[in-house]
Design a protein that fits this description.
Layout: H1 2-16, H2 27-37, H3 39-58, E1 68-78, H4 87-102, E2 124-128, E3 141-145, E4 167-172, E5 179-181, E6 193-196, H5 216-225, H6 307-318, E7 344-347, E8 350-351, E9 354-359, E10 365-372, E11 378-386, E12 390-395, E13 402-410, E14 413-421
Parallel strand pairs: 1-2, 1-3, 1-4, 4-6, 8-14
Antiparallel strand pairs: 5-6, 7-9, 9-12, 10-11, 10-13, 13-14
Helix pairs in contact: 1-2, 2-3, 3-6
Length: 423
């Protein structure tokens, strides 16, 4: 009954909100439908947003300079050959995501001068998953043929990989809708991004749905998956203070915008009259930021995330999507976990540099423990006899924030864990 109701809600809402026979994004409607059916999830999300706002206000430069790589699995759901898009388009799409989130996109030069000071390299990157949740090798691409209409929840056709450690992207024929996503924290089986197959690709291997052929649909939806709202969320009554904790898109440096922008404006519209000054470099009456990935303009008109959006996404990763930090999805099979991974556990796995390593070997054994940075530079080493179950404290607090490697070796083999230092 809930599934039928959700389908009805989505169908009616998308029809009402269509623009020029296409709906740019269905995340708001999708989330509202889920909230109606599962009010406990709405309450949980609101509580987490309050926590994120408090965290951001206390840590405005949190995770600056620390690159996080998120493993991606593309689920291609098709009923006809044209929907079974080639690998080349998926590789191109991944390249678009990495360039957009690192601000290395070629059209970054199109950002207007008033926004150059807050256009962000988010320090977020993506890889095609190299291993499945159970540790087997994978290409990160799953293809499934099905019959009938695109399902309300694509997880029912191609099961979602562990949503805490992978970004699941479902691609198929979703009609006149370009895409939608689940806002965090998400739940197992309902925490993913969905995109129209004709909107997948990039400049070198474009999709076929002009002007949405350059891959910005998935960039936009991943923004939602990492807790961003539309820049026009809340309209002119949106972001109106330096705290930005209760209104609008919850980001201070994206000016209030009355409505979504379509196409690619040729002027500098200001759809709201702001009365409260923004943080530098803003003043009142700042023009609309229509080139932001979280607006509705054409793919060729989008070219930036803001510093505030970057902080909000990284706060989401460090809080309610924190297991992405230690996901092994980007690590090829054979590089680690030759030993049973349960033999060594680390707590806390995100810390200020002080870690406790718990050994759970079936018998006493000699273990060499080495901590390295991502370039392979050795930071710590110990060699000692470990009893059946014991623990060892290591201090890496002298090192900068970042992702590090902890390797445990015995005469039987070795395993590798990723650890994170965050302050």
């Amino acid at each position: 009954m809930k599934t039928k109701l959700l389908i009805l809600i989505l169908t009616v809402t998308f029809a009402i909100n269509s623009h020029a026979q296409v709906q740019r994004c269905g995340t708001t409607e999708h989330q509202e439908a889920l909230d109606l059916l599962y009010p406990e999830l709405k309450a949980q999300r609101m509580a987490l947003n309050e926590k994120a706002d408090e965290f951001i206000s206390e840590n405005p430069q949190y995770r600056a300079g620390l690159v996080v790589t998120i493993p991606v699995v593309f689920h291609i759901l098709y009923t006809a050959p044209a929907e079974n898009i080639p690998d080349a388009r998926l590789f191109e799409q991944l390249d678009v995501m990495n360039k957009d989130f690192s601000r290395s996109n070629l059209d970054a030069s199109n950002t207007r001068s008033m926004f150059l000071g807050i256009a962000a390299n988010t320090q977020i990157q993506f890889c095609l998953a190299q291993r499945t949740p159970n540790g087997t090798a994978t290409t990160g691409i799953v293809r499934v043929s099905y019959t009938g209409g695109f399902p309300n929840n694509p997880h029912t056709i191609s099961p979602e990989w562990d949503h805490t450690k992978y970004l699941n992207v479902y691609i198929g024929d979703i009609g006149g809708l370009l895409g939608y996503a689940n806002l965090p924290p998400g739940t197992a089986g309902n925490d993913h991004v969905v995109a129209l197959y004709t909107a997948v690709g990039g400049p070198n291997v474009p999709g076929t749905f002009v002007p949405y052929q350059l891959g910005r649909t998935i960039t936009h939806e991943v923004g939602h998956w990492l807790n961003l709202q539309h820049t026009f969320n809340g309209g002119c009554g949106g972001t109106t203070s330096t705290t930005c904790g209760s209104a609008g898109d919850f980001v201070c440096d994206t000016p209030p915008t009355a409505n979504p922008a379509f196409g690619c404006p040729t002027n500098s519209p200001n759809s709201c009259t702001e009365t409260t000054p923004f943080p530098p470099p803003y003043t009142a009456n700042m023009v609309d930021m229509y080139e932001n990935y979280m607006d509705y303009t054409d793919d060729g008109c989008m070219n930036m995330f803001s510093l505030g959006q970057s902080t909000r996404m990284n706060a989401a990763i460090s809080n309610f999507r924190s297991q992405l930090l230690t996901s092994l999805g980007c690590v090829p099979v054979g590089i680690n976990e030759i030993l049973d991974p349960s033999y060594v556990t680390i707590s806390p796995n995100i810390s200020d540099g002080n870690f406790e390593v718990q050994f759970n070997f079936p018998i006493a054994t000699t273990v060499t423990l080495v901590a390295m940075d991502m370039s392979g530079r050795k930071l710590y080493e110990s060699n000692q006899q470990i009893s059946h179950a014991t623990s060892l404290k290591i201090n890496l607090s002298a090192n900068a924030e970042g992702i590090y490697i902890l390797k445990a070796s015995t005469e039987k083999g070795f395993l590798v864990k990723r650890i994170a230092i965050v302050r």
